[in-house]
Amino acid sequence: MIILQDLKKTDKVYVAVAFRDMNGKYARHAAVTLASVFANTTSSVCAYVLHDETLTKENRAKLAETATMHGKEIEFIDVSNAYLDNAKQIGKAKLEIVERTLGKGMLYRLLMDRVITASRVIYLDCDILVTRDISDLWQIDLEGKAIGCVRDFDEWEKIETGRPITQRMAKSRHFFGIKQGEYFNSGVLLMDLDIIRSHYNVAKDFVKFFNKYGAWSLLADQDFLNYIFRNDKKLLDKSFNITQNLNLSKKEVCDKIFHTLLAKPYEIYTRENVDDLYWHYLTKTSYCASQDELISIMCHELGAGRYTHRHSSACVKRLLGNLVKNIKESHLLLDIRAYYAIKKEKEAKL
Known about the structure:
Blueprint: H1 4-9, E1 12-18, H2 26-40, E2 44-51, H3 57-69, E3 73-78, H4 80-87, H5 92-102, H6 104-108, H7 112-115, E4 120-124, E5 128-130, H8 135-138, E6 147-151, H9 153-161, H10 167-175, E7 184-192, H11 193-199, H12 202-213, H13 220-228, E8 233-235, E9 257-259, H14 275-282, H15 291-303, H16 313-328, H17 331-349
Parallel strand pairs: 1-2, 1-4, 2-3, 6-8
Antiparallel strand pairs: 4-7, 5-9, 6-7
């Protein structure tokens, strides 16, 4: 196990992103996240990119060039085989449900303990923007815990305003055995991989979780990580994963790690100074060579996003279909499914 004293002697910081790039655009967002780390971190950085066959040669080259621009290292890890090996344990029908709910890319991060050899890693979602030296996070002493993490936005809202979380969320978290006020956001994780490898089998544990609690889960992968590490985590300062990021001044966005949840900065402008960071760090990647190119990209992206494009009859039909789907998959039906799952489990024990 790495302890704080060892980390201070280690110059290199290891970070990881994981994604599936079906439309060829997600790699750019990963590049922006990594560029924000590279640009603000004085220590050596090695970035692991967990991917599959959807990462094109062109995007791989651009990610590698982005790391080179900042004098940092990057290592590509194709997790296709590791994913297939673990997917067999779930079963085809259940795997289809998981993939439809999360997408395969979201499950790739559950393989980090098996495919990354480093003792410790900082995992980042690809909608993260970093404005601080990430060594500040890297050097935190986890005091023997498996992960370091930050409370989710609704937990902070309850702490700061007294506003309670939804009844559905409260029920599911209680059912998972998570202490009140300790549910964390999994977009930024400091992970002691040595501890995780020696005490957990994350892929198998996820199968068990999904089989037992799938009907109760709202955010399957995040719920799972909260469940498995419920008694093996260190809660960190809010500044390491800010999910409430509206109405901030230019000064307030410094020395932080932002998680741009919900509306993405490349789709619609909703957060002054925070959304600006995406475009700022895009210029520090190989995806944007000049200010003129930046203007062109911004006009194209913000003018063609789901929030700003002109709706056709096909759009209206698709929105209606989504509405019907959302009603069918409402929390009420999830509660009913959960009720019968628990009832079935109790009957089996009789």
